[in-house]
Give the backbone structure.
Amino acid sequence: MPLRVRSLAQSPTTALSRFPRSLRLMLVLASLLFPLLGNAHVGSPHIVFQGKAGLFPVTVVVRQPDVVPGLVDIHIRVHEGAPRQVTALAMHSSTGRKGAPRPDLARPVEGETNLYNAQLWFMTRGAYGVEVMVDGEGGGALMVPVNSVALERRPMPAWLVGIASALLLFLAVGVISICVAAVRESTLPAATPVLLSGRRLRSWIGGVLGLTVVVGAVFGARLWWNYEDELHQSKVLFRPLQHTLAVETSASGSQLRLELTDRRMSQRNYRLLPDHGKWVHLFLVGAGDRPAFAHLHPVRDTNTHTFVSLLPNLPAGEYRVFVDLTHEQGLTQTLTNRVRIEEGLAATGKLTDPDDSWSPSQAPGEGTCGLGPGLRMTLQPTAPLRVGQPIGLEAAVATDSGDKVTLEPYLRMLGHAVVMRADGTVFSHVHPAGTLSMAAARKFAAKDGGEEAARATDAICGDLDALPEAQAIAMGRLGKVSFPYVFPSAGEYRIWVQVKVQGRIVSGTFKVQVEAGRSDE
Amino acid sequence: MNATSTLTLPADGDARGTGSTVSAHALLERLTPLIVIGGACITFGILWDISWHATIGRDTFWTPAHMLIYIGGAVSGLLAGVLAFAATFLQKDALKGVTVGLLGARAPLGAWVTIWGALAMLTSGPLDDWWHNTYGLDVKILSPPHALLAMGMYGVVTGAHLLASARRNRAGGVGGIAGGGGGLVVFSNGVQLALSSILLTELSWPNLQHTSTFAMASAAMYPGFLVAAACHRPVSWAATRMALVYVLVQGVMVWILPLWAAEPKLAPIYNPVTHMAPPAFPLLLFVPALALDGVFLLFRRRQHWGWQVPRLVLSASLFLVLFLSVQWHFSAFLISPAADNWFFAGHGRFFGYMSDMEFAGRFWRLQDRPLTGAAIGWAWLIALVSASVGLGVGEFLKRIRR
């Protein structure tokens, strides 16, 4: 039990900041290329998972590919113990372990202790589960679900345009010159002295022939390239689910109605999986320096693709909306939208779901935030906030007099955090175990190992319901919870930390500044 | 270019007269077979590489198959560069009669084409890398950067064939049967055909050989090769021998690759292969080739242009009838349990780890790409155009001397 407490509460403090400079630089570069997208965890290409592989506490950082097939980069930090070896295995949701190859050996990162790196190819679209196995005394495995979707089409960089154009021009000149030479003199017997003036017509014929070949090749290549590009944009690029979102007012109060109208919802793979007990996690974030915030769990309405939630008593204004979904195959996505709450909308004060929560407009704290009468929350990062730096965001709740407060299970965990860049281009729903979807991890584990393996995965993911009750209570008594995360870009961020104390859900609101990754070099 | 300048050229017979000419010509004679071998390395390498991807999956750049391709391209390109350097600077006078001028430098035409091919292979590198990073790695053979790579490979192999053809013509006279070097020409031509056929791999699986796409793509590619060889005729029955070289090149890979144990390294694995997947059994092109050799033998004394049209019509028609009927039945055999053995790579043995073996014993796309009468008509027209191009190439190959 003490080991569990240590691993969840303390290991990020010492370990997450020890990722090598090369990884940090890579994460920085990767983040520059990553725009706002509808993929799970908007604008955040990294999945961070902190848990235990057997008895080994580990932190796994997976950089998702943004093309398919694509290369997935995995760093595994083993915080304690002496592992014999670390392996990583990718399983596709369609075949599971049965269709998986032998695991790849993760290689120790030079100059680091107990940091391992593996790179795996994801060959098809959909959801993959990456099983990280730490061999050694008390070794074991953990599962990290990773999306495999094509997220963007990058423009060709100017330097490559220059080099490629020069080389292709050179090749084009080569084709024409070769055709001229071929027609002009390649059939001449060696013994024949030839006046080149008499070959002028042939030179022209060769030139025209060569030019025709070049023009044909350029035209054909252009047609083909455009065709492939359109195909990629229309069929291959990941498209968030089409949906509608509206505020409806009736005699019983105002409610938010989310309807997934996308035709793909009729496919088996697009059926939803509940994630820690909820079909949908919907977040509302207000505008301005004092943003209101709500974390709701709409319930299914008349058909399976419509979800409704009573509106909490939020101030009028424009809100960003983020909706976290997990699909049956394990693919996760975050839908983005906006909604306007008009003045005077009737809020009933009732909840659709007992775990719904919201906080009114309040100035975000810088390090400390009030949680209402007698309580405050502090947020302490485990290392300076820099892009690409795996980090722990450690939140502690105490009374105004400084006494520790026991955290109660909220949505089966010690707490939930939401990280959003002030401009909305980054959004992540973070758990104490990291940024992965627990539902997807459970799905992969259950596919091969059944309910027992799924339960073990729940426990590794920090699901308090899957832990012995005494252990869960002891963890809560520490009064603090840590969230592992990798900031993908520099700028001002808002962080909401939600915990349950004294039977009510409270949200601490913070603002932090994240520096560019290169500044620490 | 100076309109009054004259190229003073040694006679063919005089080319071996002096010490320097002997060494210069010896260089050309010796390097030509090596460049042909470099081209063959590319062809074997690409077949091996496709098998590697189908069996093991994506791997490092430094696989032996990749190395064989790039070494083949680099060696051929460098040797052709040596020829160009020698002909331009070291043995300019001695080699003047067997070279052509290009932007002030001199080399045999084949050497220029080989150099161009090697450079195109290099150029495709950064473009291919960008393509992979943008659209994902190709799980298919044909993409625009791969097409440039393929053109580069094809340039190397074609350059080798031109060098061999010019060498043969210098030795034996126009269309001659006497003299040496005919075997090298046929071999390089067979290698060229094998490399070209790889472009159509994804349209030519035995399971697709009852479709209109297969008929039309084959009609575009193969009559040109067969007619060119039959017309060029560096040896008797040249088209047939070339087609047999193609069968052997691909056949060797069909028979050798499955002897090596290998397993997939990437998920998802739908077909857990245990040995290197061979290519599909080669097409029986030697059957129409035999007929086309016969046609050109029959018409060999009728060189008047008026005979070209009936010769082409007969060639295209014979090709289509023989090729389609032979492959129609042979493909049915290849997907049947009777061919499920090492020799024929039958019943989907060529399937990679990402293929579903459930479809191995069926013909595909019979509904949307049926081989209708109209499709055969189009294929005949395409074959006629292909044969016409082949005739032009064949006439050129008869006469190339540099």
About this structure: The two ends of chain B are 20 Å apart (CA to CA). Confidence is low (pLDDT under 50) at residues 1-18, 174-178 of chain B. The first helix of chain B runs from residue 19 to 55.
